[in-house]
Amino acid sequence: MTDLRDVTLRDGLQLTGKPLPTARKVAVVRELLAAGVPSVEIGSMARPDLVPPLADTLDVIRALDPDELARCWVWVATPRHVERAAEAGAVNFQYCLSVSDAHNRANIGRSTEDSLAAMPRAVAAASAAGGRIQLCIATSFTCPFEGAVPEERVLAIARDPRAEGAGDIVLCDTLGQAVPAQVTSLVARVAAETPPRRIVYHGHDTWGLGVANTLAAIAAGASEVDGALGGLGGCPFAPGASGNASTEDLLFALRPSWLTPTAFARIVRLSGALLDELGEPNRSRAAQGARTSATAFPWALGEEVSCR
C-alpha cells in the first residue's frame, strides 16, 4: 500500500506571487484530510523574508487540533526549527538537507556537512516533543549548480550514523530531471544498502516525468510519495525547478483504497478553486480529464472544472 502526502501548502506555495491567507490554508488542510488524503505538509520554518508565502506556518500549526497535526508535516532545517514548530504543536518534522553543498548553501545557508552534524540535535528535539522526524535529501539526482549527483553521495548520507533516529528517508528529484531508470536504481539501492526505513519519493514534473518517476519509485520500494494540487510548486533556491508531480494525477494513477470517484471529485474541485484564487495554472492532466461530460466513466465530474 502506497500513501500519498500532499505538499501544496509548503512546496506548492513557495513560488506563488499571491499570498494565501492563514484561514484559507487551514481550510485546505481540513478539506484534504476530510477527503481522505493520508497526510499533508502544511508549511516551512524557513526564514519568512526568504520564503514569504510560508511566513505564517506557526499560525497554521496553532490553528489545527492534535488529531489533525498527527497527519501533518512541517519542513525544518535546524534543531531550533524543530523546537519552535514543536512549541506551536507540530509533531511531524521533515529535516531537509541537500546532497550538493552548493544547493545546501543556497537553500539553507550552510554546508551539507554542517546540516548533517546538526541532525542528532534535531532528532533529540523531535523525540522530546513526542514526534517523528524524516531525513529529507534534496538534489538526490541533479543539482542546479553542480549538475549530476552520484548515487554514492546519496548513499553516504543515508548511511551516516548521525541520521539515525529518522524513521523515513525522503529522496527528492528537486529539479524534475531524473528519468525512471535513475529513480529505480537509487530507490532500490537505498532500500538494499542503507538502514531499514520507510522510503518516500518526492518528484517534480519539470520534464514531464513526475508520474512515471513516482511509479518507478514505488515499484523499487518507496511506500509514500509526494504530490501537490494541480502540479503547483518549485524551489526558489533551485533555478530550473518547476511544479511538483500533481496530486490529482498521482491519485488517479495509484487508486489507493480510500479514493472513490466522489473523493477524487472533491479534490479536483478544491484544486481548481485554490489555483484560481492564486492565479496559477492547473497542470494536472487528470483534473483536465475530469472535465469530460462523458459521465459513463465514473471518474468524470460531468461538469466544467476550472483548469487554468
Description:
The protein is of the alpha/beta class. The protein has one domain (3-290): TIM Barrel, CATH 3.20.20. It is built from twelve helices and ten strands. It has helices at 22-35, 57-63, 66-69, 79-88, 101-107, 112-128, 151-159, 180-193, 210-220, 247-254, 261-278, 285-289; strands at 3-6, 39-44, 72-76, 92-98, 132-138, 142-143, 147-148, 168-173, 198-203, 224-227. The strands form two sheets. The protein has an eight-stranded parallel beta barrel, surrounded by nine helices. α9 links the parallel β9 and β10. α4 (79-88) packs parallel to α6 (112-128). The longest helix has 18 residues, at 261-278. The two termini are 32 Å apart. The mean pLDDT is 93.
Number of domains: 1
Unreliably modeled segments: none
The whole-number mean of residue pLDDT values reads 93
Question: What is the H-and-E element order?
Answer: EHEHHEHEHHEEEHEHEHEHHH
Specify the biggest β-sheet: 8 strands, parallel, barrel
| Proportion of beta-strand residues | 15-25%
- Total strand count, please? 10
The proportion of residues forming helix, as a percent range, comes to 40-55%
Apparent shape: globular
CATH C-level class: Alpha Beta
If classified by CATH, what would the architecture be?
A: Alpha-Beta Barrel
Strand order of the largest sheet: 1-2-3-4-5-8-9-10
Which fold name fills CATH's third level, the topology?
TIM Barrel
Overall radius of gyration? 18 Å
User: Number of helical segments?
Assistant: 12
C-alpha end-to-end distance = 32 Å
CATH superfamily: Aldolase class I
Structural class: alpha/beta
